[in-house]
Amino acid sequence: MTVSDESLARAAADGDRQAFGVLVERVYDRVYAYAVRLTGSRTEAEDLAQDICAALPVKLRSFRGEARLTTWLYRITVNAARDRFRRASTHARAADGWGDWELARQAEMAEAAERVDWLLTAMRDLSVDLRETLALVLDGVTHAEAAQILEISEGTVSWRISEAKKKLKAMKEAEV
Prior knowledge:
single chain, 9 helices, globular
C-alpha cells in the first residue's frame, strides 16, 4: 500500500527522517519543473527547489492538510519565487556588468530544446500573474487548484490562460 503525500508530510513534520526522504523524493521533480517555468532558468530553478527542500522540515510544521500537499507546495514555490524575483530586482538596480550576465543567461538557454527555450523566453515577457498561472496549468494543475494556489477565482485563472495564449501567439507571429 502506498502512503499518501499528506501522511508522509505529517510524519516528516513529527521528525521522521525516512518519511521526509521519501516525501522529498516524490515532490522534488514537480517543484523543480514548476520553478523552471516560473524562473525561465534551470539553474535558478534548481537553486529555488533546493532552498525549498532545505526549508521544508520547518515549513511542514505549518502544513494543516486543508489542501493537497502538492497544492501547498506550489504555493510555497510561488512565494519563494516571488521573494527571489524581488531580491534579484533589488540587486539588478545596484549591479553593474549586465552584459556579462546576459551572455551567461543566453548560453544557458541554448542548452535546452528550441521550442522549450522559446516558450520559457516568451513566458518571461508575460506579466508575473499570467506567467504564474500558465506555469501551473502547464504543470497539469487544474484551474480550480491554480485558483486555490494563487488565491484568485477560477474564472480569473481561465481569463489569465486565455490572455497568456493570445500574447504568446502574438509573440510567435511577430517573429515570422
